[in-house]
């Protein structure tokens, strides 16, 4: 049984526009049987924060191409991507890549 | 590449005196800048300040690529152009402004889109490439050309009140495809016409991009290889995030690359490299 | 201050369309910019990019103060000037470039040093002041004039590969004297001629300074009141540090101010506001 | 008796030129009778790091005008200035103000 976690979830680069324009969300993830990983977090975000057009954020069980995921300011690819197990007080940033100039 | 030079002229010593006294740069670094060539892909909101500061610093040759003409709606951020030049090709307008500032810098205007047919040959003629473009197909095209030609790529972008900058394919670091193996769905991409942009945000990013180019050209090394600097202009916040390393399975720079020639990037991305009238998207 | 305006023209809507679509700015913010006036103290490495982006964004009136003339050694960072204008007053050279970019912006050149005799009257005619100067006496003079006139002051500086920016006397925040009640010993102050500066570092700082001015003028509020952003261009690092609050005992903005008139700042600082040939100092 | 402290001492804005151009110094302050405060730290810096022209850095028992002191990125004026008692792992930044443009 994993204890509840307090996590900072941030959106940037335009991804925040899918979340009422709010960039920083202080989130409490409830205790559950399995440990919280990014895969579970995405499901939780889809259910609790993302109200419409989920296809602009989620594709399959991951984020759509063009969104970078940073855990404590480091690329999630360095940490196991979807399988990274969240720690209390982690910060997770989802940033949409910009292409304008 | 330009031929090496042994010494600065008296005029050059006077003109660049403020940067020559910097011990990290000095005469040696200035000579490297004077013999460096930089390809500027896009003469818009990023390319204008970038080219301005590269010319001011005494970079030997600047290649300017842009197919577009100056419009009044450009002038809130594209500061090399002017009202009197509306309708002219951006590369000629930019080259004229740069010549006023520093006539010793050789400006080579290419009034054409960068295409898979021309990009590799063009990139090979320059030492460093600055991606100042505004669309996804061009960003993949520039990346693949830089990987195939073995050139470092300084890439910046801006939209609304935000900007991002990183350096690709430098000293074993990742390329654009290492970070973004798949293009974003076309309906998730916003351009500046639709999303808007505050002009001075492109100014901040273009200047930071010029700084990275200058450090690479002078041999000081860039700061944002393997990392991405993000800027939130409304909050005044900069944040530097650590990117992944080069991917051994990258289609462009990996151990068994499948991108061995330039491709059809508009088909790959499902969007156009030159269409300015895409429909409004959410992000 | 300029008279209020009720609507944008068709031409303005076209020209500023990319920033008008930003919900944080919009037509309301653009109208505020169009009726805003900004005093730019110094048309050098900071003042050039600052004035360029303020003019591009459509600020109504720009006052340009500089007693100096364009020299070739300025052109590696003072990008509004040009080779053909060497020997001309910087304010006229700058105004000509700004007019090419945006003829609707009213540029008021003051080809003179800012002095205790003129500063207060001048500052009172503008809504926001940008300190782009290069010496300590002028920084105290501008601060005291802004406090006496009740104007916000956006202050930036650069030297070698470093830059600093902050906002003084805004919405109850500290003024320059709150942070620096005493001037530094003259022998510890380095100018750009002696210490050197990389031009694009002034570009980054001047753009950030323009951004803060635009946010204040548009009613969005600045990011660096009560804080100082420091930039290390060699390492690519930004760092925002928290400054003290306003000091109740500040000589300028405190509860019983002793600075009730402008003073002799050269005597106060033990150095000149216009001498360009100070001897080399360590820092 | 105060235990030894490990402190990061940083210089910037040109102040590092008085310290061989080195911006970051990882410093171990030895255990001593009194607690370590900024006043003591300045004496320690003068003796151990600052080899010449101390008048460009120190004036009396404080730093010279024009140098800002930041403890963990906050103005030392918020923390008691010379009397602030250092904690293990504190970062102290001395930054010389720039005036160029
Ligand atoms: Zn790659
Ligand atoms: Zn004050």
Automatic annotation (TrEMBL), chains A, D:
Covalent cross-link Glycyl lysine isopeptide (Gly-Lys) (interchain with K-? in acceptor proteins) as placed by the record, residue numbers: 101
Transmembrane segments: none
Subcellular localization(s) per the UniProt record: Cytoplasm
CDD domains assigned: Ubl_Urm1
Post-translational modification: C-terminal thiocarboxylation occurs in 2 steps, it is first acyl-adenylated (-COAMP) via the hesA/moeB/thiF part of MOCS3, then thiocarboxylated (-COSH) via the rhodanese domain of MOCS3.
Superkingdom of origin organism: Eukaryota
Annotated InterPro entries: Beta-grasp_dom_sf (IPR012675), Mopterin_synth/thiamin_S_b (IPR016155), Urm1 (IPR015221)
Oligomeric and partner information: Component of a complex at least composed of URM1, CTU2/NCS2 and CTU1/ATPBD3.
UniProt name for this protein: Ubiquitin-related modifier 1
Organism: Ailuropoda melanoleuca (Giant panda)
